[in-house]
Amino acid sequence: MSDTDVTSRAAGRSEPDSVEDVFDHTYEEKAGPKPPMSIVWRNVILMTLLHTGAVYGLFLVPSAQPLTLLWALLCFVLSALGITAGAHRLWSHRSYRASLPLRIFLVTCNSMAFQNDIYEWARDHRVHHKYSETDADPHNALRGFFFAHIGWLLVRKHPDVIEKGRKLELGDLKADKVVMFQRRYYKPLVLLMCFVVPMAVPCCLWGESLWVAYFIPAILRYMLALNATWLVNSAAHMWGNRPYDSSINPRENRFVTFSAIGEGFHNYHHTFPYDYATSEYGWKINLTTCFIDLMCFLGLASQRKRVSKEVVMARVQRTGDSSHRSG
Predict the structure, then answer these.
(1) Which 8-state DSSP code applies to residue 157?
(2) CB 249 within 8 A of CB 132
(3) Whole-angstrom Cα distance, residue 242 to residue 290?
(4) CA-CA distance, 304 to 86, in Å (whole number)?
(5) From CA 291, how far away is CA 278, in angstroms rounded?
(6) What is the tens place of the pLDDT at every residue in 247-284?
(7) Would you tell me how many other CB atoms lie within 10 Å of the CB of residue 16?
(8) Which cofactors does the annotated protein need, by name (predicted)?
(9) Strand, helix or coil at 302?
(10) Residue 174 CB: number of other CB atoms within 10 A?
(11) Which of 101, 190, 232, 306 is deepest in the core (most CB within 10 A)?
(12) Stated pTM of the model
């Protein structure tokens, strides 16, 4: 069996019987008064400092060496892959299998991304899919762009998020020693990969100033990677068309697809969350899919799950908004 032939077996089905059953569209809204939001002032201060430092880093770009800018771009792509190919497509959705060396590489990249450890990220993402656009959704887009983008990180989690998260089956994550190693040593890994390495490489290898190396490959790159990921939660849940399922909020958003290296085909992804490509178009504007395919070619990944064209078209005709275009 080839690693790309794990597909839906009938045109009438949208999801297989697997761990992905936790991603069904069981959207519930809890009745009763909403608890007041409790601001986490530490996070407010840290995010303010981060974005202020990143804006300052923009003014340092003209003084940076070309190699430093290329290194910052490479760090952006690596940290993004730690989220998209790692925490998202591999560990949250189990949409393909990765060898131990690849899992170690993705954990390293994920630590550079500094967006919570993989166990917590995948748990919250599974809750997001199962209870999308309800109080149990960590970044419920119905609460507005700001909340879905960054506000959800500045307040205490809604009690429903915690309650639903505790009920999920996370045995696959607990059984992965690489994931649990990262969770155990997350703080030193983040300090090393998100800040020390991006800053030290330009200083040590081509003599960049410590000041520029700190504010561009570390701070500015980190801020841009964060916001690229957050756009999937905010913009891709608000603006765009819904060719696969018009009854759900996630949209197809080309800008988000470009900025988040392939994660903006969001109506497709929420309709078929187990598809490793998160899109029916393969490599098109989808660097993460290219990366996973390359890993499969090198023998480091396998068993990519894919939705058949027949299943996609059946869903388009049944629930889409008539905006679907082939190719």
Answers:
(1) P
(2) yes
(3) 24
(4) 14
(5) 13
(6) 999 999 999 999 999 999 999 999 999 999 999 998 88
(7) 15
(8) Fe(2+)
(9) strand
(10) 12
(11) 232
(12) 0.90
